[in-house]
Design brief:
The chain is α/β, with parallel strands linked by helices. The chain has two domains: 9-168, NAD(P)-binding Rossmann-like Domain (Rossmann fold); 177-268, ProC C-terminal domain-like fold. 53% of the residues lie in helices and 13% in strands. The protein contains eleven helices and eight strands. Strand 1, helix 1 and strand 2 form a beta-alpha-beta unit. Helix 7 packs across helix 8 (199-219). The chain starts with 8 loop residues before the first strand and ends with a helix. The structure holds 1,4-dihydronicotinamide adenine dinucleotide and (2S)-3,4-dihydro-2H-pyrrole-2-carboxylic acid. 1,4-dihydronicotinamide adenine dinucleotide is lined by residues 12-18, 38-41, 44, 73-76, 78, 81-82, 85, 98-100, 120-123, 175. Residues 164-268 form the Pyrroline-5-carboxylate reductase dimerisation domain. InterPro entries: 6-PGluconate_DH-like_C_sf, NAD(P)-bd_dom_sf, P5C_Rdtase_cat_N, P5CR-like_CS, P5CR_dimer, Pyrroline-COOH_reductase. Belongs to the pyrroline-5-carboxylate reductase family.
Amino acid sequence: MKTSAHQAIAFIGGGNMASAVIGGLLRQGLPAAQIEVVEPFAEARDKLKAQFGVAAHERAGAGLQRAGLVVWAVKPQTFKDAAAQVAGHTGQALHLSVAAGIRSDSIAAWLGTQRIVRSMPNTPALVGKGMTALFARPGVSDEDKAWVEQVIATTGESLWVDAETDLDAVTALSGSGPAYVFFFLEAMTQAGIEMGLSREQAYRLATGTFAGASELARASQDPPEVLRQRVTSKGGTTYAAITSMEQAQVKELFIRALHAARERAKELGDEFGG
Ligand SMILES: NC(=O)C1=CN([C@@H]2O[C@H](COP(=O)(O)OP(=O)(O)OC[C@H]3O[C@@H](n4cnc5c(N)ncnc54)[C@H](O)[C@@H]3O)[C@@H](O)[C@H]2O)C=CC1
Ligand SMILES: O=C(O)[C@@H]1CCC=N1
């Protein structure tokens, strides 16, 4: 990654998402000495030190002053408390939140700055295949936006949304999305086992099918329903399976599930953003 005057990066919260971003930054050549983490749990701190060789502190201290970017990777429920502990310790940093639901208005009020980008990543970031949506508060400079893009690029792809409320939809779709894929993987693997395959065989076939179908969809100009039709021979096996799913209204239920996730994202903002 390119050198930059404000390259030191601090993470508030050192769990799953922080680890995904830290891993990406180190893979791209950011020195571990340029990263520090505030993480209250000793076990999590030990893991960060062992896995990444980064400094991890129990609480915010003077070291945070040198961070040009502060990444907020705490749970929505703990953001406000964490902000109260950290606010006085950061300098004129740019702030990047990955928390679901918590609105930038709340973050701005807690931190006393407008220099905030909100994001919604997902866990494939751990293997450099993340999808992240970004929203910048008015007043965030193009330079800051470019810096955030550069940081997030170490974990996969990103796109900007213009309306902050769209982040709730993004959370429901791609933030939570890997869990839906894993849910289908569980079901396909179980079905394979029930039909006589070994767990290993079934899981390998299921994961390879997801990866291959996703690649095909991305490479193709055709919409997914056309790709699906190409698999569905008349009177064949796919037809039997899709008919069974249509009768059970699987698609409608699935869409409803995403609406529930979006509602929950809104609620998180209301409950924990005050
Ligand atoms: N896990 C996922 O798939 C995704 C999570 N997110 C968001 O990322 C955020 C973090 O989620 P995860 O990394 O999964 O959670 P996590 O539980 O793995 O990590 C959160 C960390 O924050 C630490 N923490 C608690 N209080 C703190 C404080 N006062 N100061 C500093 N650190 C504190 C916890 O000890 C924990 O290690 C959440 O807001 C979530 O909405 C966003 C996209 C995807
Ligand atoms: O379930 C959650 O609330 C977080 C946000 C997106 C994925 N995990």
